[in-house]
Amino acid sequence: xxxxxxxxxxxxxxxxxxxxxxxxxxxxxxxxxxxxxxxxxxxxxxxxxxxxxxxxxxxxxxxxxxxxxxxxxxxxxxxxxxxxxxxxxxxxxxxxxxxxxxxxxxxxxxxxxxxxxxxxxxxxxxxxxxxxxxxxxxxxxxxxxxxxxxxxxxxxxxxxxxxxxxxxxxxxxxxxxxxxxxxxxxxxxxxxxxxxxxxxxxxxxxxxxxxxxxxxxxxxxxxxxxxxxxxxxxxxxxxxxxxxxxxxxxxxxxxxxxxxxxxxxxxxxxxxxxxxxxxxxxxxxxxxxxxxxxxxxxxxxxxxxxxxxxxxxxxx
Length: 316
Description:
The chain is α+β, with helices and mostly antiparallel strands. The chain contains 9 helices and 10 strands. The protein has helices at about 5-15, 60-75, 95-115, 165-170, 180-190, 210-225, 240, 250-255, 270-280; strands at about 40-50, 80-90, 115-125, 130-140, 155-160, 205, 225-230, 260-265, 285-290, 295-300. A 6-stranded mixed β-sheet has the order 6-8-5-9-7-10. Strands 1-4-2-3 form a 4-stranded mixed β-sheet. Helix 2 runs parallel beside helix 3 (about 95-115). It is globular.
């Protein structure tokens, strides 16, 4: 079915998602009033068909992943989600049912995470399908967590389990079997750790999108520190452990985790545990930061350094 006229498409699929300030998507811009006394936090991510999702991925899950990877960036700042802008560039032969499914996925997660659509743009493209989302959140003034700010002696913590997303992609592409379906679900549907109160607890942090080792390297460079992690302490789900030792390096470097990676002073580790318990989110200490060249060393529990042929995902 040919792509519907732009305004008809917006009216049927996206106007029901619009919230305060969106002007019912009838204008070229939105008008947003931030909560009183709060700093705005803005972040954007793009997803391209064949790169960040597979052609046969259900459209509702594609939409929810797009929203959730952006929510994960807000979670890494300690921010509360507010609203988002969306750009969709789709081939002209994209079925209207795809847009319906995509919009239904957004609606489901809007209700879960209490965000609404402000506006955006729709265009046609010869392909592939390309999606971009800019999300807006808010924090108390001066409390946003950054990549920089860590100190030597800080502990390295992660939320959840690491490696499920990368292994889920391996399942989706036929390189790994997982009859539980857990890994594929984790690849298609990340779990942003919104609600974990890290402001005033973490000295630095970010979410893990390009691989644990590579993203930790970003914190090292931003804070001018070295890092050392214990590969055997990195939390892995039961299906990830069942994949076996040959997949450990993929878990550490594959990306698509969208868990939080945090530098926490030892004196605040109890505060982190309490915040995690309050939010119902598991946290695990996996290493430490120290003075030295801005690089990451991965060791096994017996002290042996683990050789890695790659450090993470590259966007270019």
